[in-house]
Design goal:
By secondary structure, this protein is mostly helical. It is built from ten helices and no strands. It has one domain: Hypothetical protein af1432.
Length: about 200
């Protein structure tokens, strides 16, 4: 049991959320969870079940419907209402490779109160290995499966556009990749099944 939630409960949450708001985010969430699990297992120092749950639930805020940045605070609020404090943190941090609310590519479809809360929250926390892992895995998985970072970066840039901080976000994600690769002693791509078949889809 991690953060008062186990894998079975996490999967039920995704199933219920997929009924409320079906879409490609559901398959993406499963793939992020698997990527996080595989990398955590290889690291040895991380809890693979915990990583899997965090990956599954990082986008749970999308249960509320189609949204942009709002899904992060919606996920945080929902997880907190369940008593899942650690899950709530990942729901909010996963969209911010750079720990700055202004360095996000999504439309700020949030209230001023939510903006101020998120700004203060990000400024006053430190990212742990699970925050870094889910940020990385969010960029390693799409609805089809696992993919190299460059594919995901191009996909999101085509959808959201280019910003002054775009390359800085990419570089920080590469830093997280290097961090975990140093920990496991090999490329993270070797841990993700069928990744080559996803490169040119």
């Amino acid at each position: 049991m991690i953060d008062n939630i186990d894998i079975a409960v996490a999967k039920r949450e995704i199933e219920m959320a997929s009924i409320l708001n079906p879409g490609p985010w559901v398959a993406h969430s499963y793939n992020v969870g698997l990527a996080a699990k595989y990398i955590a297992e290889a690291c040895g120092m991380l809890n693979a079940d915990k990583a899997y749950i965090y990956g599954l639930l990082h986008d749970i805020g999308r249960r509320n419907g189609i949204s942009a940045l709002k899904h992060t605070i919606d996920g945080y609020d929902y997880a907190m209402s369940k008593g899942w404090k650690e899950v709530a943190k990942v729901c909010l941090t996963h969209s911010f490779p750079i720990k700055d609310i202004e360095a996000d590519i999504a439309k700020k479809d949030i209230t001023e109160e939510q903006y101020q809360f998120m700004k203060h929250y990000l400024e006053n926390i430190d990212y742990d290995d699970y925050d870094k892992l889910i940020i990385l895995c969010d960029a390693l998985a799409d609805k089809q499966g696992f993919c190299i970072l460059e594919k995901r970066f191009i996909d999101t840039t085509r959808r959201y556009g280019i910003y002054p901080f775009t390359v800085e976000r990419w570089n920080q994600t590469y830093n997280y990749k290097a961090y975990f690769e140093e920990m496991i002693g090999t490329s993270i791509y070797t841990l993700l099944p069928n990744i080559e078949s996803c490169i040119f889809k």
